[in-house]
Amino acid sequence: PLNTLHLSSSSPYAGQGPEFLRVPLWQGGHKKIQLISQDFPWAFDIGLESSTTERSVMCLDVLTMLHTALQCPLSDTEWGAATEDKHASLIRVRDCWLKMNPASRRKPLILHVDWLGSCVAFGGLVKDEMFARRRLLLGVREPLEMWVVRFQSLS
């Protein structure tokens, strides 16, 4: 959740709350973007409601959506599509998290975030047109803006 957002002490924004993230993702932004990653198999769409007064997707929208989406349980189809090595990794990550946080209210389900292994820190967004073209489902119209999410280890 946003109340757990922590920035490095070297960041010029260290110690500030999430309100400083209510800025457009980029200058001249769009009302709809799609997030993809080399670290997970999903595509997440972020679009503004037509009733909103905001004119662009905000940085806060991206972080909020990513957090929410990565807390969803893995579906039966996602589990079935994973390799045996990925199954073992997912179980190991979930068990490690539950062991480190015994007082957690987290159910012993495998979550999307578990797919990331130890690289769960948001590392930024980049444009990677080659990866985006390879990642785009054949026959699907390309969205207005496609951004690649990078993750990094917490340590």
Total helical elements: 4
Number of DSSP-assigned strands: 4
Taken from the alpha-carbon principal axes, the silhouette is: globular
The percent of residues in helical segments reads: 25-40%
Distance between the termini: 20 Å
Radius of gyration from CA coordinates = 17 Å
**SSE topology string:** EEHHHEHE
Task: Give the mean pLDDT.
Answer: 83
Strand order of the largest sheet: 2-1-4-3
Main sheet overview: 4 strands, mixed
Give the low-pLDDT segments.
none
Task: State the assembly state of the protein chains.
Answer: single chain
Q: What class do helices, strands and sheet pairing give? A: alpha+beta
* Beta strand %: 5-15%
3D architecture notes:
This protein has a 4-stranded mixed beta sheet, with helices on both faces. With 155 residues, it is α+β, with helices and mostly antiparallel strands. It is globular and about 45 Å long. The longest helix is centred in the middle third of the chain and has 17 residues, at 84-100. It contains 4 helices and 4 strands. The model has no long low-confidence stretch (mean pLDDT 83). It has helices at residues 59-70, 76-81, 84-100, 129-135, and strands at residues 32-36, 44-47, 121-126, 146-152.
